[in-house]
What we know:
Elements: E1 19-23, E2 35-36, H1 43-47, E3 56-64, H2 82-94, E4 97-101, H3 102-108, E5 130-134, E6 152-154, H4 157-165, E7 181-182, H5 201-210, E8 215-218, H6 222-230, E9 236-242, E10 284-291, E11 294-300
Parallel strand pairs: 3-8, 3-9, 4-5, 4-8, 5-6
Antiparallel strand pairs: 1-2, 1-10, 6-7, 9-11, 10-11
The structure holds NADP nicotinamide-adenine-dinucleotide phosphate.
The site of NADP nicotinamide-adenine-dinucleotide phosphate (NAP) has 33 residues, from strand 3, strand 4, helix 3 and helix 6.
Region (Disordered): 164-203
Pathway: Cofactor biosynthesis; riboflavin biosynthesis
Protein name: Dihydrofolate reductase family protein
Amino acid sequence: MSAVSDVTSSSPAPSLPALDVLIGPGGAGHLAGTRLEVTPREEELAAFYASPPGLHVRANMVSSVDGGAWGPDHRSGTINDAADWRVFRVLRALADVVLVGAGTARAEGYTALDVPRGLEHLRTGRGPLELAVVTRSGHLPASLAGGARPPFVITDEHGAGIARASVPRGGAPGGGPADDTHAGAPRTPQDLPSPTPGPDLRAGLAALTERGLTRVLCEGGPHLLADLLAADLLDELCVTTTPVLVGPGPGRIVAGLPPLVPGAATGPTAGGEMPASADPVRPRLEHLLHAGGTLAARWALR
Ligand SMILES: NC(=O)c1ccc[n+]([C@@H]2O[C@H](COP(=O)([O-])OP(=O)(O)OC[C@H]3O[C@@H](n4cnc5c(N)ncnc54)[C@H](OP(=O)(O)O)[C@@H]3O)[C@@H](O)[C@H]2O)c1
């Protein structure tokens, strides 16, 4: 994910680069060597990210060359660039709903979303760009509290109670478990409850689908991405690799504990490293675009 400066801005960055097609689409070489010039309508670039009808879950993440998912300020804005921003805007324009973990909503200061300016035609017939936040705690950041367009909240019963309690008077009513509650005010860290079993992500996506929100764009963060992958709910992963080295410290674009595998070691090794997950997932490269050392890859998981 993420914008050059303000993640929620719908304004185009001042100078967006042309993108060279290195591979694809479809992993084929027939468009290799062509160049996607910047156009006001961005239809050519959008065609590279067309998705099939029905529920389609795409994640869009940015990584430094050495695998970091954020920069020294703990935000992804310090590792992305204008090429990433160009793709980011088009992916938002193509989405019905942006899905984020509450950690990302807090770290990146998410607010209600708008379709990137000038790209409204890419979503003809679709509704406004919605935001859905996944949370166990039910606590949303201040930037989302009490706004005129509160987000959908995917949470469990416990989180839904917390979220509903913070809906401002006159706020939209909540839904059922695994939840599409519209929520409001955040709480302080001291208010955070004990960890709970957590929401059913599949049910959450089904609830969005029932509302016609089938084109889901997950903008992270790393814990949510890991959970979507573990539940086999991700159709596609777009990763922009930017020519930046952040060194040790920042995490990867997936985070959390690996799933328990029968017979495998479950704790850290003697070297202090966590065991790897069972079988690596092997996505298929759909296309690879390039500008100034930045590589924008579209990986299909199905
Ligand atoms: N490189 C990139 O493209 C990229 C993209 C996004 C974010 N980031 C960076 O990643 C960092 C944040 O990392 P993160 O892993 O904490 O982000 P995250 O996955 O967005 O946040 C984790 C939090 O989100 C909620 N959550 C995530 N998965 C959940 C699930 N399956 N069920 C219930 N709740 C779930 C929980 O919120 P509660 O605590 O409320 O229960 C959890 O504590 C920031 O520095 C941000 O800048 C980078």
